[in-house]
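Q: Structure tokens for this one, please.
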Amino acid sequence: MSRQSYLFTSESVSEGHPDKVCDRISDAVVDAFLDADSGSRVAVETLTTTNRIVLAGEVRGPAEIDHDRMEAIARRAVRDIGYEQDGFHWQHADVDVHVHGQSTDIAMGVDAADNKDEGAGDQGIMFGYACRETDVMMPAPIIFSHRILQEMADARHSGAVPQFGPDAKSQVTLAYENGKPVRATSVVVSTQHSADVDQDQVRELVRPFVDNVLPMGWMCEEDEFYVNPTGQFIIGGPDGDAGLTGRKIIVDTYGGAAPHGGGAFSGKDPTKVDRSAAYAARYLAKNVVAADLADRCTIQLAYAIGVSKPLSLYVNTHGTGQVDEAKLEGALSEAMDLSPRGIRDQLDLSRPIYERTAAYGHFGRQPDDTGGFSWEKTDLVEAIRSALT
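A: Here is the predicted structure, written as tokens:
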């Protein structure tokens, strides 16, 4: 029997965290290619350190997205985040671009030809998850961690709290009783800040954002509220720590409350199932919960490079399901085409919608009118119910 009373912790990092700077640059490059040609293939990684940005990877797409254009994209992304520091400045940083054409061997396996449908861009396993802990069917610790930092970033960008710097981290620990979160037992927020405020002032600047995000009465005890526990945090971002694309995959997904297949999302076009199939798995899991077929749902998909059909589909409703899980697996396969092409078409993924995903989580976000976060819709409910009859 699973435990019903326990503590669980998740963390988030802000858009100015070194790894998230890299995720944003890589996804901005993906968007540029897809905007110019929806059939582009992109796999671009970014590294950042003190006043240096390095892009590497392989692409197949319009020649106008050349090295100069990618450099400009990187500088614009860093500017929009807000880095104008001596040690990391959007205008003054050195930018090196080492991006080349896609391997013909990979292209041959992925491309559709004759009677062969488009294959997966790589092998791998992908997971999706949904639950009833929050209004967006996500685990509460990761959603609260994201929202604290997102609201702090909004205040920084608006000028309401100019003392905040771009780099920040949060961590929320919740107590669960009878399997449900009931209160915070500790909250940690570390934020870069200007030199003209001391630690007590930073603590009070942070406090209202935590109070606003946590439900009424959930705030932890004062001695469990940690703000910049190591001391001042003036030097931040890539000047304080090197960043790499794809190092925050648990932050990107479910905060450790559900499995992750291992593949990162950012910098990859939607033929890469690391990204698109993880979105599809979340879409299916969320629609299962929205259809009142389970209170919790984990879904695993598996693919082989160059093969269009998934090798397996696994559903676990954690003892909360209203229908047999094997029957649900069949219904989900009937309700949605889970080939790479089918996923892309169902969720309309061949659009420039990825830069906005690079911080504050890929899941639990609101679908927007330009196609972003389409995998968060619950428009598959009736198709799943119909497939079960």
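A few notes: The chain is about 30% helix and 25% strand. The CA atoms of residues 43 and 268 lie 5 Å apart.
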